[in-house]
Design goal:
Layout (H helix, E strand, L loop, with lengths): L27 H9 L20 E5 L2 E6 L1 H7 L3 E7 L4 E9 H8 L9 E6 L4 E5 H4 L4 E7 L19 E4 L16 E6 L2 H4 L10 H13 L5 E2 L2 E2 L18 H9 L17 H14 L6 H6 L2
Parallel strand pairs: 1-9
Antiparallel strand pairs: 1-2, 3-4, 4-7, 5-6, 5-9, 7-8, 10-11
Helix pairs in contact: 6-8
Length: 304
């Protein structure tokens, strides 16, 4: 929710980490307030660590929960580190107590060859980050378990959410780019699942080169917040069903909104000035291709 994602639409947009089965922070009202724009409960960002909030982290493999660990168990097995480093969400250095991400993954998935896996990081408010095992195993990746500058957690993002109990952070100066090194907060689930199995209906099978190039952009930068055919993030709007975005918004408006959403309205979706005109052409080609490949499990189910 939060954490970033890349894409759009003139509805609610991204700002970082999906409701999950977490028992610790499973309040849907709190999760929704954190990233979708409603007001967060007063004082929600100042609640300190406590036994009442054990911080449950789920480890899933191919949809099945293989292990659950609470904060005390994680800290007992992994020596926390304390350090300061620049955080692009706060735009300054932050002081964290954190666990090396590599160690957390090894603890949660014993015996698994992690580097070869495809992961999905899931947050409580619907933010999902598809990411490679190779990226997660980089030196410099951590899961922050405490903000050492305030009694609880300093509010994060435009909606002033509480990033706890777990916030993915990166320590090295070369890891500041939120597109290549995403920082989901309110982390609830670390899942191993092949992309083709997790998001099969987002793939423009049989489409041309332009649509395939657009899919590559969408997969890397947009899927964290937005869904295609009900597969993907839940923070931003669904873009293909029941209607494809190009079926109710002019192409020129979609392109302009992707590049600079704040020129249309205030919200959480970030601007994307790095996307070239060719990139936008590719995204439009992808949306057009997906308009011919609709899959709506909700509609299909109600029809039977």
């Amino acid at each position: 929710m939060k954490r970033l994602a890349l894409l759009f639409l003139l509805i609610v947009a991204c700002d970082g980490p999906a409701p999950s089965a977490s028992s610790a922070l499973s309040s849907s009202a709190t999760a929704s307030a954190a990233r979708t724009g409603s007001a967060a409960p007063a004082g929600s960002a100042e609640v300190p660590e406590s036994d009442a909030d054990p911080g449950t982290l789920f480890f899933k493999h191919d949809g099945e929960t293989k292990r659950t660990l609470i904060r005390k168990e994680l800290v007992s097995a992994i020596e926390p580190e304390t350090w300061r480093a620049y955080d692009p969400y706060y735009n300054r250095e932050k002081h964290y107590r954190a666990l090396p991400l590599r160690a957390v993954l090894k603890l949660g998935f014993p015996g698994v060859k992690l580097e070869a896996q495809h992961f999905i990081l899931e947050a409580l408010d619907g933010y999902k980050v598809p990411i490679s095992g190779k990226r997660l195993l980089e030196d410099g990746g951590y899961i922050a378990i405490r903000d050492l500058e305030v009694p609880g957690w300093e509010p994060i993002g435009q909606r002033k959410a509480n990033p706890g109990p777990y916030y993915v952070v990166w320590r090295k100066p070369t890891q500041h780019d939120l597109k290549t090194h995403p920082r989901p907060w309110q982390l609830s689930v670390i899942a191993i699942s092949p992309f083709e199995k997790s998001y099969p209906h987002t793939i423009p099978t049989g489409a041309g080169a332009d649509a395939q190039a657009g899919f590559a952009i969408f997969r890397e930068q947009c899927l964290r917040c937005h869904a295609i055919n009900r597969e993907g993030g839940r923070v931003g709007p669904e873009l293909n069903v029941p209607k494809n975005i190009l079926e109710y918004r002019p192409i020129a408006q979609v392109r302009a909104y992707i590049q600079n959403p704040l020129s249309f309205r205030y919200g959480n979706m970030p601007a994307n000035p790095h996307l070239s005109e060719k990139d936008l052409d590719h995204l439009v080609a992808y949306f057009r291709a997906m308009s011919e490949r609709k899959h709506d499990p909700k509609k299909d189910k109600s029809a039977h």
